[in-house]
Amino acid sequence: MRRLLKASSLRAGALALFAGAAFLTACSGGNQGTPIAPVHIPGSAAPTATPSPTHGSPTPVPSATPKPTASPTPKPTASPTPKPTASPNGVCPAGVTPVTAPIGAAGGSLTTAAAIGTITESFSSGTFAATTTVTLCYISKANLPAPLLRFVHVDRGGKQVPDFTAGAGNTYIAAFGTDFGGATATAAAAESATGVVPTSIASGTVLNIAINENGTWVDVGTALVGANGTYASTIPTVALPGVVKPGKYLVYKPPSGSTTQVNLGFALIADDSTADTHGLQFVQIEDPKGNALPTPTTTYFPISAADDLDGEALTPDAKYGATVDGGNNVYFFSGIPQHKFTLSSATANVANYGADGDSIAALPNGDEDVVTADDGGPLVIISGILSGNPVIADLIPNGTTSNPNYRDGLVISVDGTVLLSRGQFGGTPGIDVIKITPSAPHKGSTGVGTISHDYQVVTTLTNVPTPFFEDGHDAMAISPTDSSRAVVAGYTGADVAEVAVITGLPNNPKVSTLKFHIKPTAGRRFQLGAEPSYKRKPYAATFPANTEITAVEISPNGKYAYLNTNAGIYTFSGVDTGTLAQVGSVYSPTITVPGGTCTWATTFEGSASLGILPDGKYLIADPNCELGFSGTAPQYGPGVLLTIPIGSNGALGAPVGQLNYVVSPFNDQIIVH
After folding, report:
1. What are the Cα distances from residue 150, in Å, to 218, 224, 249?
2. Within a 13 Å sphere around the CA of 197, how many CA atoms are in the beta-carbon half?
3. φ and ψ of 433, to 5 deg
4. CB 480 within 8 A of CB 556
5. CA 282 to CA 267: how far, in whole Å?
6. pLDDT cut 70: percent of the chain above it
7. Does residue 32 carry a pLDDT above 70?
8. pLDDT of residue 219
9. How far apart are CA 307 and CA 121, in angstroms?
């Protein structure tokens, strides 16, 4: 976007550390590697040798008179061999003595030895309603209850679906068994684990945590490798609730290119020319237990050469990212999970394919990004990112071949199989539906570098609304639980606000629209002569006059859609069913800011962007309150970041976190993880 705003002073902020909430720890010792022979854990009972049988008394010397009476030789009595402590629910291998400890409502922890170092399991306050006996034991690789070669997850229909094929490179890190003594861990409790990892696994690597169920492994959480060979589990998510029930658990490193999404409780915001120092603002929103920080902490990652950052992308594991500016330059970075922002010296330029770099999307493997430069040019595929040699390897036709479309917004599904692209001005209105399929590495259409995916434009949908604004995500969102579903918002030719649910992606997309009733007396910014909105049905919701929809987000459970407008945030149910219905009234709080108050309907320019943390607990809004700068740190922009709790029915509550003077982009591009 080509806009200029007042500048702010740059001050460095501090970052909050992330880890998980109920928490397993490992202390290193000796040589780190991928051990994995069965070991005897200190404290476990070793077999005791059976003593020699006890014989009867020696035969007495016979007396002269009576005949000696032989004493009967008693049968040998064997000493019993000590048995290992019984394992509750069979969570520990035979012969391994578990560690037990009473854990009360105030929380607590217990530790067991591992092949190298120790494993500690900790519980935060409120995990259990009353004191219970918790069991913990180490499980060696040799004692795993199921092979390491095949993992599955359970899909929305309850069907187990393989995540990795047999023989894929899954690396054992540690395993443990735990039991809660019959008690139930509360939904609000969080657990995390730390342990020792091989030195070959770098800091910032995301590990998976899986539970053994029905003879196979099912992913339930993630962990992040830290310094000195340790790892710590991340904040649980809706899809990956963590260690919340008894069982045998495995911590493993999945193959590269895994699509596991982590929750580190942060937001990443591109400056979009609202800051005097160009770059990305990092905001820590949740503490290690997944609770909202009343005042989020922040720091700024400068990209001094960048101007007007209009789009940003991050892989599901948050390890690799990229951003594009209005000068068509693409910048690559890493180190976000470990709070060590590293900007690559390698860049790419897409000026040959448009006049204004507007949006970018990252494939899960981190080695391919999709970029749009607007102005009717094709979408650009950049590959070779991880090698430090990014090149433009392929081009995706932009819109129908007979009538090219201007595309400046992109979204990609979490699993990297569906890409949507659309724009605001020029060409034919519509959304390009692009199918992404993994393939063997091959040359793309440019003949430079290689790509490991095929990109197919399946169709261009024309019966969809046009976005009110441009760049970033362009008010589009794909369901995080079902990549065949998406929600998009905008206006029709008569400037009538509409929301559309798209199902059947990518092969057979179908569009169902929801129109908003606007009273006939209401003036609208655009009047193009089409049928008045008050005559159009169905009227499933009502917007006030001059309403503009700027952003769309879908909840992590795939049920609710949130629309941000300059009148407030609207909540809709039915994403999972395909029939949207408004839930409650518009959410439009008045908040206190330096110098007064700020509301959606008055002083706000509106929140152009929304995000929802993967645990589904908080929606993040970033309205531009046009805050002035007094020179005190940290003041990076005119906006206010709000942490808004989400209720069980999707309803929004009063903000529980607020950070003033944040970067507030003009478009829908904020990223939360």
Report:
1. 10, 22, 15
2. 27
3. -100, 120
4. yes
5. 6
6. 71
7. no
8. 87
9. 47
Query: Would you state the structure tokens that stand for residue 61, as one six-digit string?
Result: 């010397």
Structure confidence at residue 337 (pLDDT): 80
Which two tokens mark 279?
């770059």
pTM attached to this predicted model: 0.77
- What whole-number distance in Å separates Cα of residue 550 and Cα of residue 667? 7
User: d(Cα 254, Cα 151) in Å, to the nearest integer?
Assistant: 10
Residue 361 and residue 312: Cα distance in Å, rounded?
Answer: 7
Rg of the chain over CA atoms, in angstroms?
30
Q: 149-186: per-residue pLDDT in tens?
A: 544 444 444 444 434 333 457 888 889 999 999 998 88
59 Cα distance to chain centroid: 81
Q: Look up tokens 């197919």; give the residue.
A: 456
For the chain, the distance separating the N- and C-terminal CA atoms, rounded to the nearest angstrom, is 25
Residues 6+ apart with CB under 8 A from 22: 121, 122, 123, 124, 127, 185, 189, 190, 191, 192, 242, 243
Do the beta carbons of residue 486 and residue 409 sit within 8 Å? no
Reduced to 3 states, what is the DSSP secondary structure of residue 36?
Answer: coil
More confident residue, 576 or 202: 576
Provide φ and ψ at 533, rounded to 5°.
Answer: -65, -30
Chain segment 79-118, per-residue pLDDT in tens = 333 334 455 668 999 888 899 999 999 988 888 888 777 8
- For 353-369, give the DSSP string: G-SS--EEEE-TTSSEE
Q: What DSSP line would sit under 144-213, residue for residue?
A: -SS-SS-EEEE-TTS-EEEEE-TT---EEEEEEEEE-TT----TT----------TTSPTT-EEEEEEEE
352: three-class secondary structure by DSSP: helix
Q: Write the CB contacts of 663 (distance below 8 Å, at least 6 apart in sequence).
A: 269, 270, 271, 272, 274, 275, 281, 622, 636, 637, 639
- pLDDT value at position 603? 55
Q: For the chain, give the percent of residues with pLDDT over 90.
A: 30
Q: What is the mean pLDDT of residues 23-38?
A: 34
Digit-coded pLDDT (tens) for 555-607: 999 999 999 888 889 999 999 998 888 888 889 888 998 888 887 765 555 56
Tens digit of pLDDT for each residue in 386-423? 899 999 999 998 765 444 567 888 999 988 999 999 87
pLDDT of residue 358: 83
Question: Do the strands 510-517 and 539-542 form a parallel or antiparallel pair, or are they unpaired?
Answer: parallel
Q: Which residues contact residue 58 at a Cβ distance below 8 angstroms, ignoring those fewer than 6 apart? A: none
Contacts of 423 (CB under 8 A, 6+ apart): 374, 405, 406, 407, 408, 409, 467, 470, 474
Q: How far apart are CA 551 and CA 411, in angstroms?
A: 12
State both tokens at 257.
Answer: 């290119």
Using the structure block, give the residue that is written with the tokens 């009967």: 72
Region 37-50 average pLDDT: 30
**Which residue type occupies 419?**
L
Closest among 115, 121, 81 to 99, alpha carbons compared:
121
Of 262, 252, 457, the closest CA to residue 364 belongs to 262
> Which neighbouring-strand residues pair with 371?
360, 380
